[in-house]
Amino acid sequence: MICLGIEGTAHSIGVGIIKNVDNRCQVLSNVIKTYQPERGGIHPREAANHHAEYLADVIQQAVNDAHISFQDIDLVCFSQGPGLGPCLRTAATAARALSLRLQKPIIGVNHCVAHLEIGRGTIPECEDPVLLYVSGANTQVIAFAEGKYRVFGETLDVGIGNCLDKFGRLVGMKFPCGPQIEQLARNGTNYLELPYSIKGMDIAFSGLLTAAEEYFRKGEKLEDICYSLQETTFAMLTEVTERAMAHTEKKEVLLGGGVASNTRLRDMVVTMAKDRDALFFVPEKKLCVDNGAMIAWLGYLMYTSGIRMTIEDTVINQRFRTDMVQVTWRD
Q: What pLDDT digit, counting tens, does each position of 267-301 carry?
């Protein structure tokens, strides 16, 4: 079965094509086009206009890269939520049009669950992990328990990616700022005290961000601020993930989302996993960021487990929470 997935929740529009091979996900193509704002953060309408401009070309390139024809596609999938409304509507509209044109079934999927399932689908040893999902808009610790994907911890304000971007923009960096902060942090030597804000199993970044901005205004060395920002936020994320692993008694941890590319975060989670005698996994970089392949794979899992959707069922949901998903493909 060959499935095409369209991802369009935020600043990236992606189209991936996958097929099932021995119950594993084989990625045939995975094309991503990213919106780069001239200044400031993501403007939802401008991002949607960008997606609308490039989406047809991205779909065509994905089909070409997969060395298939449009008639070979068996299922059309798209990101139904959560995300920015104008971006979600652009991806959904394209998916509906393609489904109707090809007369193929359509499935809308949850973006956050797709990040977890692409890890399980492409890494053979990854079977039942706790996912630390770290992206611009989303920061969640997710695990499967009692028939559902449940959120064991999440941000109470901004996502970790947005936290890093907000600080980066203040000091003059261009979007995305995370890789530049990571580079500067490598030369930081002096840890500056920052709020360590974990409330129960949830995390708050706003106070920490304000304190980091204040250090910058006072003239502290930028490398030291970046170093302290990473050490504090990543320690908070690692602690909550470890608590979720202890609570669920799971022995696997998976990283997902764009911030999963950060080597310092990976090092911290690897150390935690080793101390717990657990396994650590992270998908390849192009499957960590927002991408169409993960949407196609989750759509495949849903469809083959019996889920069907009509066009009327494909209305987007900006607040489509992880624990709202009906998990029919796992016991």
A: 999 999 999 999 999 999 999 999 999 999 999 99
Would you say 110 and 294 are in contact if contact means Cβ atoms under 8 Å apart? no
Rounded distance, CA 110 to CA 83, Å?
10
0.85 surpassed by pTM: yes
Query: What pLDDT shows up at residue 37?
Result: 84
Regions of the chain where pLDDT drops below 50: none
The SS3 assignment for 275 reads helix
Q: Whole-angstrom Cα distance, residue 258 to residue 64?
A: 26
Residue 175, pLDDT score: 83
Give the DSSP H/E element, type plus range, for residue 25: strand 24-34
Angle between helices 178-185 and 222-248 (to 10 degrees): 110
pLDDT computed for residue 36 by the predictor? 86
Closest by alpha carbon to 298, among 39, 114, 30? 114
Q: For residue 162, what is the enclosing H or E element? A: helix 160-170
Amino acid at site 307: I
Q: How far is CA 46 from CA 42, 143, 173, in A?
A: 8, 34, 20
Radius of gyration of the chain (CA): 20
Complete edge-to-edge strand list for the sheet that includes strand 279-281: 148-154, 139-145, 130-134, 252-256, 279-281
- Tell me which residue of 222, 55, 37, 64 sits closest to 136, measured CA to CA: 37
Q: Compute CA 267 distance to the chain's CA centroid, rounded to the nearest angstrom.
A: 19
Q: What is the pLDDT of residues 237-272, one digit of tens each?
A: 999 999 999 999 999 999 999 999 999 999 999 999
Q: Tell me how long the chain is.
A: 331
Type and span of the H or E element at 3: strand 2-7
Per-residue b/e over 106-141, b at no fewer than 16 CB within 10 Å?
bbbbbbbbbbbbbbbbbbeebeebbbbbbbbbbbbb
CA–CA distance, 144 with 129 (Å, rounded to integer): 8
